[in-house]
Amino acid sequence: MQRPHVARLAAILAAAALVVSACGRDEEPAADNDATETTVADGGGGETAAVFINPDTECENYEPTKGITGDTIKIGNVRPASGPFAIFGKVATGLETFVKATNDAGGVKAGDGKTYQLELVSEDDAYDPAQTPSKVQKLLDQDGIFAMVGQIGTSNNLAVRQTMNDACVPSVGLATGSTQWGNANEYPWFIGGLPSYATEAAAFIEYLKTEQPAAKIALIYQDDDLGKSYKGGIEKAIEGTEMTLVGEQPYNPLAETSPESKVVQLAGSGADVFFVGISGAPCPAALRAKPGDWNPLTYITITCTSKTAMALAQGKDEGVYSTQVLLDPTNPEDAANPKVTDFRTRAAAAGMSADDIDGGITTAGWNFGALFVRALELSPTVDRATVMNTLWKMQDETFGLLRDEVKVNSDGATDPWLIEDLRVIKRGGGQWAAVTEMTSYEGTSNDLAGPEE
Fold first, then answer.
1. How far does Cα 253 stand from its chain's mean position?
2. Between 19 and 203, where is the model more confident?
3. Domains identified in the chain and CATH numbers
4. Hey, CA dihedral for 21, 186, 67, 418, is it positive or negative?
5. Which of 42, 317, 336, 375 is the least crowded, having the fewest Cβ atoms under 10 Å away?
6. 283, 275 in Cβ contact below 8 A?
């Protein structure tokens, strides 16, 4: 079934008309007009905000509280515990530990005044989108989850987007920054947990405008929507500049064993900037593959910055650039931050190993869990649509390990990206250091995306 987004758009317009007509008046509310008058607590703790999702008009066989049994909310996660992206299985480790730490502390006190325990069911799709649908269907039908949290992979999420959307099941904190997640009007049951890859590319190009304004860029990009989001973002960002994209190579991690030959080809392009738009273990492999006589300014994706991934670069991580939104538990500058000390204490008490605490990848999963919990805390009732509507109305929020300067805002289809604050960082001596201040791209991430291919 194709989602009835036209009906929802009409509902939004009707809601907007109600808001305009009500401005400046303290009169009794108008009589019910479909469900457009329904309100939810806004994401910043204010009183009410017009809904973005109206399940009465948009959902067939809607099950608002499926996955909630007594005081337990069951959530699901699909991650690669095997295959070339098994390194990202640690994201699920972070989520699992967050769930245990939350339950150990007494659970989640939601906006409805009740306290809930969380139950997590995880499945392995080996990062293969052909396997994802059956794993997700199991979570929906057999396990009966309330929501998906932190599902990993762009193509993997795309493989089940229509199914999840038609079922009106929340998918919260997507572990992907593909520009596809900016289409909230069409797919409102999906909300990302990372910055847009195009925004990330734009932040780096903005840095180059000062440091290397005539850069000749070579790009290796993952041959899927992840990599194409970086590619399109770069192409859009360099428009009107002296920068040029002098070489590009696609890389398919599910069909190719190593990016080395692609990197060698790019080394012959004359590029003085190398953009690594691939993720997982192939990312540090691309750094290792750089010929010794090619020394371009090198950028790696935000998904590749963990200590665990950088260790796989075997010293070739020195001097590379990326972007950052999370605190780094291994960085002495962040060590005293209360968010970091809380993470270390609670994660260790919940059984996370020291290597996983310091590895960096688990922090992403911890953050996806914290996002979901924050949505529960702000929701006046705990049902699927209300939780999603809360997420679509965040105002200057923070959660988990987000850096203190990062403020989370959203506004439905007009501002569908939760995280749009980024700073450029550079690696040296085994640590990341800021080279720019945190910059806000609030409300502009969709504008920074290149054309879809």
1. 21
2. 203
3. 5-58 (no CATH), 68-195+333-419 (3.40.50.2300), 198-324+425-448 (3.40.50.2300)
4. negative
5. 336
6. no
Three-state secondary structure readout of the chain: CCCCHHHHHHHHHHHHHHHHHHCCCCCCCCCCCCCCCCEECCCCCCCCEECCCCHHHHCCCCCCCCCEECCEEEEEEEECCCCCCHHHHHHHHHHHHHHHHHHHCCCEECCCCCEEEEEEEEEECCCCCCCHHHHHHHHHHCCCCCEEECCECHHHHHHHHHHHHHHCCCEEEEECCCHHHHCCCCCCCEEECCCCHHHHHHHHHHHHHHHCCCCEEEEEEECCHHHHHHHHHHHHHCCCCCCEEEEEEEECCCCCCCCHHHHHHHHCCCCCEEEEECCCCHHHHHHHCCCCCCCCEEEECHHHCCHHHHHCCCCCCCCCEEEECECCCCCCCCCCCHHHHHHHHHHHHCCCCHHHHHHCCHHHHHHHHHHHHHHHHHCCCCCHHHHHHHHCCCCCECCCCECCCCCECCECECECCCCCEEEEEEEECCEEEECCCCEECCCCHHHHCCCCC
Longest dimension (CA), the chain: 74
Distance (Å, whole) CA 227 – CA 354: 32
Here the tokens at position 230 are 């970086």
pLDDT band, residue 453 (cuts 50/70/90): low
pLDDT in tens, 243-289: 999 999 999 988 999 999 999 999 999 999 999 999 989 999 999 99
